[in-house]
Amino acid sequence: MGEESETASASASASADLHLLHKIAKILNDTRTSYATHNRKLKELASLRSKLSPSGSDDESPPLRRFSSVFFKALTPLFAAAQRRTAAAERIVRFVAEFACLGSNSDGGDSDCDEFLDEFLRFLIPGSVAANRNARFRACQIISEIILRLPDEVEVADELWDDVIDCMMVRVRDKVPVIRTFAVRSLSRFVNDPDNTDILDLLLEVLPLEQNPEVRKTIVLSLPPSNATTQAIIDCTLDVNESVRKAAYSVLANKVPLQSLSIKLRTTILERGLADRAVNVSKECLKLMKDQWLSNSCQGDPIEFLKYLDVETYESVAESALEVLLSEGLIMPSDDKSIQQYISSADGEARDESTCSTPSIQLMEPEIALYWRVICRNLHKSAQAKGSDAATAMGAEAAVYAAEASDANDLLERILPASVSDYVVLVKAHIEAGPNHHFASRQLLLLGTMLDFSDAMLHKTASSFVQELLHRPFEQELDEDGNSIVIGDGINLGGDKDWADAVSKLTKKVHSAPGEYEQLILVVVEELARPCRERTADFLQWMHMLSLTSLLLENGESLHSLREKAIEPEEILHALLLPGAKHTHLDVQRIAIQCLGLFGLLEKKPSEELVRQLRVAFCRSPPPISIMASKALVDLGMWHSPAEVDKAMGQDLLSQFEDENIDFVPVDLSNAEEDLNFKMLDLLYAGLESEDWRAYTESTENESVKAIVGEGFAKLLLLGEKFPNLPASLYPFVLVKLISLYFSEESKEQLRFKQCLSVFFEHYASLSEKHKGYVSKAFVPLIRSMWPGIDDGNSKNSSYVVSNQRKRAVQASRFIVQMMQTPLYKSPHSLEESIQPPLDRTEEGLAIRIVIEMVSFKAKKTAAEKAYVLALCKTLVLLNLKSSEQNVIRLIKNLLSRVADSAYSEKDLLKEVKLVLEHLKSLDDNPSEELSQDEAQDEAKSIFESLGVNYDMDITAPVTVPQTPAPCSTRPAPSRRRVRRIEESSDEEDEEETSPPPSAPNTLMTRSHRASKTAALAKIMASKVKKRDTDEVIEEEEGSSDVTAEDSDESDE
Length: 1053
Prior knowledge:
There is one protein chain. This protein is mostly helical. The chain is built from 45 helices and four strands. The strands form two sheets. A two-stranded antiparallel ribbon has the order 1-2. A two-stranded antiparallel ribbon has the order 3-4. One of its GO terms (biological process) is cell division. Residues 958-1053 are annotated as: Disordered. Its main location: nucleus. Residues 544-881 form the Nuclear condensin complex subunit 3 C-terminal domain.
């Protein structure tokens, strides 16, 4: 009876569980249709749970666990099925998470709900580590939904939370991106917990390594504001994905207050966001600037906002931010504020045009000066644009545009000073206030370009003020020894490029008639040049005169516009610039060399004296002057062409670029006795080779001759079609040097130069097939020059240095392969049917060059040569060879067979060669077809001629060497006999040695390299060798001097 009752009880329990399962499944099925049914279904499901665990009974736990087990069973198909993320499944997941948090979100709480939550989390944890992808995904998804919905006061066992956190931290590195996303969402709830600092460390670690943009976005949104995370969030503003960049700006707006950011970070955020190419990102940045920074932190005051940006250091960023705010209509000057309020009468009242008393000036802060300059420029542009629209429109539309232009002009007139004299007094007051108001003075100078100087009296007042500005000398100070030191860059007027531009713009506005600008500056230059001609001027007077000359030459259109003025162009060159370039003071030489370069750009053809002086300054002067001379020569070469610059010398100049067969020896510019009778490109290339020219001073702004000349050569190669007189050998030669500089250690210090080269390489190979031919031709010389122990003999560096040099060489080889595989830019006028490019511009041509380089190394190699050939073979695998080039495939197979024959003892190389040969065999359409010897030679000769390669197939005929070590000969070979045979042999170490008549074909063997080494050692140890044989022994010993320990070990085996 007991057994029957137990069976009946079990059957009843199973029937009840099945009935409960159907009810739960029906509820879950109903939630798939719409979110609107969730509230009602939550109540039904909660009612089912409460019926199984009546309050006050002693057996609450078993019924609740029974409900949990049935509920989990009903939910199992959601985990097991490999289904897509459908809307129905997402509704079920949300409903399940809401049910798990149902009791926790209520005011009173429920112990049954808390216990069910614990059971549910314990059920989900194994699923998060399951092997099935969908099971892990659903478990992590539900866990993240539960964690994000739970209130802070929920009671969950600490051990359970620790298990959940540990599982999610593991899932952050899951191979499925969507699982990583939900794992990060789950951890975002605990990232602020001081007890879980490892979560934040993990997120910061995986963020820069994450490949999926959605996961990166989730991580960024999960990061809390702190000193450790701010930089990581700002770095994401440069992410390649638009949504990640937008998320970064959203986090900065909502979590990071303006005051917690440094000035550098504030300007970086605005500079990147306002200039972002994606409209959504720029709008998010504008929202950050408008709602958070301007409205909340600055109470809508644009002046206060500018104070957070340090306008004197980051003027362009602050100017861009103001322009965006103006374009959005977020700031506009009020009626009671204008520049006129800083100009008042002696009695303190505001001035107007009828006031004659001396004004009293209130000095502006830098932010205020920049603010009014941007406001006035915006109004000036708006008035001009609306006026132009009114002139082209008709009827009512024209009247509307005219009214808008009139309103903008009225507002501009109300803001600007009442008269030109007031404006002059305002600017003078700021200039005389000292260097602390230099920035505000420059902003006010730019305001003058919006004033009207057409009246004669106004023009006279403004002209007098402009002349005062032009006569204003460099500011100076005394050092500890009492020597005068120029404040500023020592080149531009006032020691500042921006100040010189502001003075030039104001001068052009005041003297806008044709020729007036040049006439005014030349009059001042002629006046300042008098003491220079009389040799009574000090170096400051020379620099002042030359800075004005530089300002004139920069803004001049041609030398014709300078004729019939106070000083003729020829007089400027011979009386001012050339003597200045020979001055004893280096600062005078530097600015004079810059003026010579500008003067040469205005000439129709460069003059001989100018070019000669620039060449001498480039070759013989200290770094600051040689840097300026290199800039001038590069600009002249790009403007007039290198051939035209060389022609200006009036004599035949030498060039090593014109002959490909000579060994190039760069000009030694450090040798004062070196003959400089070389063309301009040879001299500039010497700047790339000179090692002692990397020195630079603070005045050069970390520039160097190498960087300037390298950038010039990059431009020359990019625009090579504009210079047809350049020798073809120049391009691969210079490419080799530029790529080696790009991968060298010293380029790390020259960030601008490296950035320039990266842009150049990105576009060079894609512009023309001819460029690809130059890249292919540069491969072998480049890798040979970069690989230690090849061209430079035995490398004396440490193994660490040699390893790094080899890594850079391998990077360079892969970089060139990538350039060769870069697709060409398609021109809109190009034909759809592409023409087959010549062989020397394809990857097949590069493959032949690489294989020929590999074959050039004989069987006896040094350790450096072995590593070099192996690296070449690995590079060969990266090339995409076409099966259509059957003759090339056969030739490469033939050459690689020779490499395999000579490398039978090098296992690594032989393995790589066999892989390439198997690939080539798959590309060969007729592997059984063999050409006759004459046909093969003619075909190879034709290919070599198309590549410009000298290679003789007969001279380097392959030697038949077995792939496995040959058995030792059974014939006795005493040491005396061995020595005599070596004495009688020729100088060729690889000549075949025949044995007595063989009994089987496999007894034919060649003299192995191991036997050669043994024979050489025997010759060295023999004490009774004849004197006439000593030279041969020494010669063979020298030939084996490069054998490393690795080779010695092989010979000892």
